[in-house]
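We modelled the chain as a single entity of 335 amino acids. Its sequence is:
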Amino acid sequence: MSVREKRQVPPTLKAGIAAKQFLEITYPTHDLLKGIEAVGPDQGRPVVVIGERGLGKSHLMAVLYHAVTDPASTSAWLNAWAITLAEPGIGTRSTRLTFAGQVLLNDVRRLFTFLDQARDNVRAAASGHRGILRIAVSDGVVPQRFSSLLARCREQEPDIEIRLFEVPLSQQVRGLRDGFYDIGFARLGEVGEGIEVTPIWTDLLVAVVPSRHPLLAHKRVALRDVVNYPLILAHPQASEGWYRQIERILRTVDVPPVIAEYVGSHDLLFALIAAGYGVGFACESQLVHIDHADVLARPLEGESAIVTTYLLRPDSNPSPHVKRFIDRISANRAP
């Protein structure tokens, strides 16, 4: 049998919804064969095996897919591919999702998230909790204020379980719209429709520099002077809100900045500054968390050197415990 014949779609695909609509197998991978074996093609369940290309190798997801017209046809399809992939010489190069397969994959991910949350909700109820608050955090929200808020919540409502999710801002906004999260904290106030945004905290921005840096000769430094040195900034995707606030402040001077590096965490920021790679920015309230003796800070001149933390939530009526959480923030809001 030639390689071309081996790649031909098994006849069983013609019955029901053709699985090839979701997954185009160019050179079936060894991982795909193992995935089919793990699912168990003889079980007769309506299962579709999806291969996702990423990070240099094929990632698989076996999902219950109830839209298949005939489960027996799907079982036959899996059996046929298991036989085909077992043939020597097929190759182990790649699989590729079609557009329909990508749409299905996105829906399946949301389905799995809902299933996980349903499982966790049952476990929380069995443990005595009367409610669950799902909080998404992005952009390196100030640890001290956030931890104080959570401590008050646990003290005042111990029967409410709080779950934290540290995610990029884009994932937080998508999760709030899809009902995965109840509340979010971020550094960006323009996130589109369907999300109610409230500014809750403001912080002074400071320049963070290595020890013995020329800027340390001043008690306060001008932003124009800071941008004369290579800058280490937050990563535009990993910390989108923080990056965009800093970018807005940088646009207030007509000196184009030189970016030395983008980082995904404040720990890496402080480490690179201590090593002399450049200078950066942080909130004044974050300085207590700097563990590097070789990193110092100076306040910035001007009223524009202020960053804001926002509370994000779906634009709908909140549940009672979510409303109490929001009221608690409002009652204890600090500048």
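As a brief sanity check on the tokenised model: The chain has three domains: 3-100, 111-199+309-331, 201-307. The CA atoms of residues 54 and 159 lie 41 Å apart.
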